[in-house]
Amino acid sequence: MDFARIRSVVDSLAGSAATEVRIRTDGMDLHVRFAPEQAVAAAPVSATAHGAAAREDLVDVAAPMPGLVYLAPAPSAPRFVEAGARVAAGDTVLLIEAMKSMLPVRTPVDGTVETVLAADEEAVAAGQVLVRIRPVSA
Questions:
Q1: 4, 33, 107, 115: least CB-packed within 10 angstroms?
Q2: pTM metric for this prediction
Q3: In the chain, what are the helix, strand and coil shares in percent, each to the nearest 5?
């Protein structure tokens, strides 16, 4: 088994339009299903999270899967976003590591980061709100 090659395939598909991949080798059958982009997509804030008041004018970006949050692409690199940063739809706001794969979590809207609710290297649950964005008015 060539784990480096398998990881390379899985990593390259994570965050893409692919929804699943199956890799079969001698003695192994690996089936990975990715969370659809809609799971990363935002929804209007309708409930409180982390003690914050519900705000109908904000968009939540939630964890598509459980894992560890990374707020920067590398330990010494600047964070992807901070409160007050402008973002465009599709921008990466953080990474989630699950099963040694990094999944970029992207904003579905243009706007301004209102708050980052997750801490670097924090374990998060699927569906947990990680970032709140104030969308640009149309």
A1: 4
A2: 0.61
A3: 10, 40, 50
